[in-house]
Amino acid sequence: MIKMNKFKSSSFVIFLITILMLGVNSFAQKPIISTKFTADPAPMVYNDTVYLYTGHDEDDAMGFKMYNWLLYTSTDMANWTEHGEVASLKNFAWVPHENGAWAAQCIERNGKFYLYCPMPGGVGIGVLVADSPYGPFKDPIGKPLIKNSSHDIDPTVLIEDDGQAYMYWGNPKVYYVKLNEDMVSYSGEIHQEQTTPKNYQEGPWVWKRNDNYYLAYASTCCPEGIGYAMSKSPTGPWEYKGMIVDASELTRGNHPGIIEFKGKWYCFGHSYDLIKLSTSKFYERRSVDMDEMVYNNDGTIQSRHYFSEDGPQQVGTLNPFKRVEAETMAWSEGVKTMFETEWEGDFEWARGKKIADHRFVTSINNGDYILVKGVDFSNEPKSVEVSASSIYGGKIEIHTGKIDGPIIATVDVNTTREMGIWKSYTAPVKNVSGVHDLYFVFKGEQDLFNFDWWMFK
Ligand code: FUB
């Protein structure tokens, strides 16, 4: 939001005052990603996993400062694993800026993954393709797929049952075009809908259920909620049906992402809930929220005021007897994540062979913690192993149920002799059975260690 011709300064001032009055700690949901600022959620279901592509607001963003797109995955809608940057503006040789990685969407067709990426200011919409949802993504056409007007943002793609693909996009109107089977070119004219639905702002998201086509979008301004319209055809006309998530003082801009996963439907959006935990000031540092979405019998969608504090019910449980990446979490406080390649040699010129890639949790200080939900101990573990690389050293206390719930294990990560070396540390586990939320609570002074993975045995 806040761009092009829809910005209404008076509404914004009222909104800003509300935010300032609400102040710190007035957030309504724990966003699903807590270690980075994320925006413009674009979930995709593939092989029983949700691949959540997001925009990325830099930690020091004041206005829009977006260089790349990130990927998270989940198989239970409660715990999300970070996979880092999957693409950036650098993937497009023809893009003259490093800032402007706006709301993208990834879609699979015949085993290939197409990431449609808009760049604001009339730069256009590009497309990247990969053989895996994790990338690497490459630009197959070396130019914009769409360069039609300065409104070319926020693409969404629907593949019809007969194989015809449609791409929709636009602010403040909805445009669409028929994509060719190769998904990287189009045929025919670009249409501008006669009936851009009521309150449409931007961020279209189109899907089909039974005989109905749905178009959800950032709705009303400002703030934006998530509204939707329905049609009997992929090309409209679209009839406005109401709000999926109300516009409220908790949002400002918004962007829907809607999927069906394991028999339930989910609506993603974004908010300022994460930044509001640390400041009452306003910066463009957003966070993705998500909740269950419920249909009425007639195909319309039940409206909710906001995302619930704990999000939707977990689908299934997490297996602690397989290696779990430390960057798999439902929530965390204090920590950040990083990626590093480990080489056999200290200096670049002396590098031998690559030993491993590590994506890990870092910036760990006393009292920080990670929450992992619904961990299944139907087999009782005897010990827990973690992989960490010590800095000043410290302990990991593993609590069940609450941050100060019973401790089932305490792992010492305190060697100073092997500072900076990835190593595994093991500790015995007290009796535990059944399904529990686990809190990995870090104890020590500061800069304790980096944390790569954990596994019960
Ligand atoms: O995140 C940048 C832009 O803001 C998106 O493209 C719009 O949908 C709005 O969320």
Describe what this molecule looks like in 3D:
This protein has 457 residues and is mainly beta. It folds into two domains: 35-293, 5 Propeller (Tachylectin-2, Chain A), CATH 2.115.10; 324-456, Galactose-binding domain-like (Jelly Rolls, Sandwich). 3% of the residues lie in helices and 46% in strands. It has a five-stranded antiparallel beta sheet, with no helix packed on it. A five-stranded antiparallel beta sheet has the order 21-24-29-26-27, with no helix packed on it. Bound molecules: beta-L-arabinofuranose. Residues 1, 39-40, 55, 64, 102-103, 153-154, 202-203, 253, 255 line the site of beta-L-arabinofuranose. Residues 1, 39-40, 55, 64, 102-103, 153-154, 202-203, 253, 255 line the site of beta-L-arabinofuranose (FUB).
Shape: globular
Fraction of helical residues: under 10%
Tell me the name of the CATH homologous superfamily of the largest domain. Answer: Glycosyl hydrolase domain, family 43
Structural class: mainly beta
Largest sheet properties = 5 strands, antiparallel
CATH class call of the largest domain:
Mainly Beta
Average pLDDT level: 91
- Order of adjacent strands in the largest pleated sheet: 1-2-3-4-20
